[in-house]
Amino acid sequence: MTDQSQNKSSQHEAEYPGRPAAPSSKHGFLLLIIAIIVVIVVVITGVVPRLRAKAALKTETDKSAVPTVDVIQPKQGAPHQEIVLPGNIQAFTDAPIYARTNGYLKNWYVDIGARVKAGQLLAVIDTPEVDQQLMQARADLNTAEANSNLSQITWKRYEDLKNTDSVSKQDVDNANGDYEAKKATEAASAANVKRLEDTKAFQNIYAPFDGVITARETDIGQLIDQGSSNTQKELFHIAAIKTLRVYVNVPQQYSIAAKPGLTADLTLGEYPGRRFQGTLVRTANAIDVASRTLLVEVDVNNSTGELLPGAYTEVHLKLPNDVPSYILPVSALIFRAQGLQVATVDSNNKTKLVAITLGRDFGSQVEVLSGLNADDKVIINPSDSVVDGEQVNPLLPKDASPSQQGQPNQSQPKPGGAQ
């Protein structure tokens, strides 16, 4: 067979000198297949990347058309909320002490800071003028009593003479009228003596209740005028501090929950880390139209005397949270003409603007009283152009910070909250 091939080649070269012999049909078919494979490879390596790039570009374009937004789910507030409000500590009973008689201060026995009991002598006033008036009044009373006795004797004599027709009935009536007038004069003189005796008794100044002397505005020899007008100066100032009271203005939104019996703790800067327990005892049962607040009274036991009246304090009121509230970061709020809103994402990944009502302001977070549910997805840092029905791609951060998770720092809320 080899000889035949060589013969054919020799014959071909003889017939067609300088030209190669034609390949066999099998070898040509193989070459054709190889050529087709090469073409296919070239097509695949050239077209497929272009198709993939085109598909990626379309995907990227679609993604760019749907904005990605960061969302959080609001954290529900605690069932009991604590609000911190400013207050001024006041004595349970506080009274200035004025003189009720005229004279000069003879002596005083207590000074500022002294703790006194009810009925304890504080000072003595020398009253020479009152003493003279009392002596004169007693003399007038003696005169009135003598005149009354004489008039009574005269009237009785006229009564006896009337039975013998020695005097007329008119004379008897005149004697009786004179006796009644003298008796009234006697009563008036006795009342004047009693008044002056009571006035003289006011020369001794006594403590009206248990307390502490917070001011002494007099000294020995000072002229004393009775009364409590603006021109008169108080002698002492006394305050009952065993129990103290604090008046607090509670914002209207918490007025329903502020009821007598609630626990209220007091904190003061001079006692860091300490709380003095008090109780809400009464409310004004009316909202002040100027401040939209409810005035409440908190009483606190001060048997140790550590708390001082007039001091500033922060009152921590623990209110039951009847209405569920939620916590959001301030960055989620939208301020528009329609009011305060937040943007949420529904189940179809479309935006929805929701009107909300704020409660307390924690600085970087706020409390939402109405408008949200626990399963809502709220957009953080929404764009100014966000509208209802906009398609978005919500992204819930896996490593959200406490502020993004809606956990407020309730240790230092702003007093009064948001209105």
Question: Any overview of this molecule?
Answer:
The protein is α+β, with helices and mostly antiparallel strands. Among the domains are: 68-79 and 324-395, conserved putative lor/sdh protein from methanococcus maripaludis s2 fold (Beta Barrel); 128-202, Helix Hairpins, CATH 1.10.287.470. It has four helices and 22 strands. The chain has helices at residues 2-15, 25-65, 128-162, 169-201; strands at residues 68-72, 75-76, 80-97, 103-108, 115-116, 121-126, 204-206, 211-216, 223-224, 236-251, 263-267, 276-288, 293-301, 312-320, 326-329, 334-336, 339-345, 351-355, 357-361, 365-370, 377-379, 393-395. The strands form four sheets. Strands 1, 16, 17, 18, 21 and 22 form a six-stranded mixed β-sheet that branches. Helix 3 runs antiparallel to helix 4 (169-201). It is rod-shaped. The termini are far apart. The model is unreliable at 400-419 (pLDDT under 50).
Q: Summarize the amount of helix as a percent range.
A: 25-40%
Secondary structure class reads: alpha+beta
Q: In what range is the share of β-strand residues? A: 25-35%
What is the number of strand segments? Answer: 22
Short description:
Helices cover 29% and strands 33% of the residues. The chain is α+β, with helices and mostly antiparallel strands and 419 residues long.
Looking at this protein, list some descriptive labels.
alpha+beta, Helix Hairpins, 22 strands, 6-stranded antiparallel beta barrel
List the helices and strands and how they pair.
Blueprint: H1 2-15, H2 25-65, E1 68-72, E2 75-76, E3 80-97, E4 103-108, E5 115-116, E6 121-126, H3 128-162, H4 169-201, E7 204-206, E8 211-216, E9 223-224, E10 236-251, E11 263-267, E12 276-288, E13 293-301, E14 312-320, E15 326-329, E16 334-336, E17 339-345, E18 351-355, E19 357-361, E20 365-370, E21 377-379, E22 393-395
Parallel strand pairs: 1-22
Antiparallel strand pairs: 1-21, 2-15, 3-10, 3-14, 4-6, 4-9, 5-8, 6-7, 8-10, 10-13, 11-12, 11-14, 12-13, 15-20, 16-17, 17-18, 17-21, 19-20
